[in-house]
Design brief:
Elements lengths: L10 H15 L9 H10 L4 H12 L5 H12 L7 H12 L4 H14 L5 H6 L5 H16 L14 H10 L9
């Protein structure tokens, strides 16, 4: 399904097409790994990282395709510290400034997933109009402020999702499986 070695297809078009195909084939679900995450991770390892980061930003803030943009933004949020800290802050800020509530929600989820206390200022300064999203932002701010100030070196905590946490709680690993 992935477009890989087609020299005639520009790399930027390939990334966009691969992400579209991944989301068409499988919807993005909270707490469930998605093939788009791997596509983004591979793209971020490219020698043209700056162009990739710029393209991911453009795709994740595309107001003409807010559902697709929100999915891309959520998958970027599942990456460990992509781009620079200022780029991540700008991405969250721009997502919160979107007219579309789904994109704003994705920006909040991304901030939560990155577990970066420095993003709380952006969340605090945002004036949300949707009551449900305003409540979610308040909860994320509270959670981020209660956490120690550190950068994640593993998958973001928001990546696991409620479904996986509940599964682990109700179906713990067999004692022989624990390390």
């Amino acid at each position: 399904m992935e477009i890989e070695n087609l020299d005639l297809v520009p790399k930027q078009t390939r990334l966009s097409c691969n992400l579209h195909a991944a989301f068409e084939a499988e919807p993005l679900e909270c707490g469930i790994n998605h093939p788009a995450e791997e596509i983004i991770a591979k793209a971020l390892q490219s020698p043209e990282n700056r162009q990739v980061v710029d393209q991911l930003e453009s795709l994740s803030l595309d107001a003409k395709r807010p559902g697709f943009a929100a999915s891309v933004l959520r998958c970027i949020g599942r990456q460990v510290n992509p781009g620079t800290a200022s780029w991540r802050a700008g991405l969250v800020r721009a997502g919160l400034a979107a007219d579309n509530a789904e994109l704003r929600d994705a920006a909040v989820q991304t901030a939560e997933s990155w577990d970066d206390r420095n993003l709380t200022r952006i969340l605090i300064s945002h004036r949300e109009t949707e009551p449900w999203l305003r409540n979610y932002i308040r909860d994320v701010i509270k959670d981020l402020e209660e956490r120690p100030d550190h950068r994640k070196t593993e998958k973001p905590s928001g990546h696991q999702g409620t479904r996986t946490r509940l599964k682990n709680e109700y179906f713990p690993a067999h004692p022989a499986e624990k390390s």
